[in-house]
Amino acid sequence: MTGLLICAALGIEARAVSRGLPAGLSGTRVVVTGVGPRRAARAAVGLGGQEAVAVVGFGGAVDRSLRPGDVLVASEVRFAGRVHPCPSAPLLAGELARAGLPVRIGPLVTADHLVGGAERHRLAATGAYAVDMETGPLARATVGRPLAAVRVIVDTPAAPLLSPGTLARGVAARRTLGAVGPVLARWAAATGPRIVLLAEPRSFCAGVERAIEIVEVALERYGPPVYVRKQIVHNLHVVADLSRRGAVFVDELDEVPAGAVTVFSAHGVSPEVRDAADRRGLRVIDATCPLVSKVHAEARRFAAEGRLVALIGHAGHEEAEGTLGETGGAGVLVQTVDDVAALPGDRPVAYLMQTTLAEDEAAEIAAAIRGRFPDARGPKRNDICYATTNRQASVRAIAAESDVVLIVGSANSSNSLRLVEVARHHTPAHLVDDQGGIALDWLAGARTVGLSAGASAPPSLVDDIVSALRGLGPVAVEERVIARETVQFSLPKEALS
């Protein structure tokens, strides 16, 4: 931590924030600057120091979606023709949201007068969210230091400052500022220089890129809506983006209109699902990853030989459900070594693996199967996909050097969860959907942060986290390369015809 300097225009704002600060907190100063940009500029001259700077207080909304009591964390501060970025805003906003506050992130404008009426509308048209009268000069004077600007909204276009109810809104805003104080302390504790170790490979694999491209091509060729059974890949950002563009995600095919264009997800489906699609006359485009299709073919082959097919995988995962469906009732899910003892011994056994497992976990279970059934047959090649293997190896490499590891991925992403498990053998590790999911306490004292992403997570999310960390202090980025992936999969003919 480099220390914390809190600036507020009014004594009432400063006292409210101070009351929320942890008792005995050292290295923290609270300064009352006075109202308006001139007083703020004069106060800025004497600030000095190297502390992280947080400008806090009340603010006025210009964006109509903001309501009194909302907390705006500035993504940037606009003042006198210049823009001062606040890159750590998503980290701070995520922490405030977890504290139960209604948070928004957006641009803050510093004006030299009270803004109202038509001027609010003009500012809103520029993309601004709120306005104040002090942050700009303070941001300009503290360039190079971690900067945060937090404003609790008191007045809005629908509830101007000079209107009934302002006093009550101000009292409520003062209470909210008290809740902001402890979060600012955690934000400051997370500041400082650090190294970010990037695992390579990370993020999208060839199968995920192919599946997303299939939906994009279908939307372009046929127009929305294009229906997708289940999530095309297990990532909420990917699903949200495709939804905005016209993809409709459904759990089951009975939600799809007869004859509609329908995409099967990258995780694959069972023959029963394919039959249901035929009965409804759906125009199907199959986005099943070719490596999953390979496991399906092995399942059919082993089942045709009269073998019990033991699938090493996780219950409820679409890939496991699809693969078991290919066995015609001859398959059984094996999740742990203990499950091996319950396998029936009345016929020959074969085993397969869900492609997104951790290698050591799957290998242990496979060894237990071979130990009980010496004649058991397995896949000709490891079922765990190359991308899963490579990402686990690269995470293993960075975890050994890191104080904490962050894995970007959604909670239903099996391969992302396995990366967290791999990292935790060496150091604390956490799964996050994006930078807003990072708890500031994880970063306090962490001078080396390992960073990777599951095969279904967009690479842009990794870039966003690096940018947010730079808002906490200087960041040196180093890459640990385990492999370079050159695999590409062609699109299915249904997507091209």
TrEMBL record:
GO biological process, one term: isopentenyl diphosphate biosynthetic process, methylerythritol 4-phosphate pathway
Cofactor dependency: [4Fe-4S] cluster
Gene: ispH
CDD domains membership: lytB_ispH
Name of the protein in its database record: 4-hydroxy-3-methylbut-2-enyl diphosphate reductase
GO molecular function terms listed in the Swiss-Prot or TrEMBL record: 4 iron, 4 sulfur cluster binding; 4-hydroxy-3-methylbut-2-enyl diphosphate reductase activity; metal ion binding
Binding site for [4Fe-4S] cluster: 205, 289, 385
Organism of derivation: Nonomuraea jiangxiensis
Lineage, opening ranks: Bacteria, Bacillati, Actinomycetota, Actinomycetes, Streptosporangiales
NCBIfam families: ispH_lytB
HAMAP family: IspH
Binding site for isopentenyl diphosphate: 234, 267, 317, 413-415, 456
InterPro entries cross-referenced by the UniProt entry: LytB/IspH, Nucleoside_phosphorylase_d, Nucleoside_phosphorylase_sf
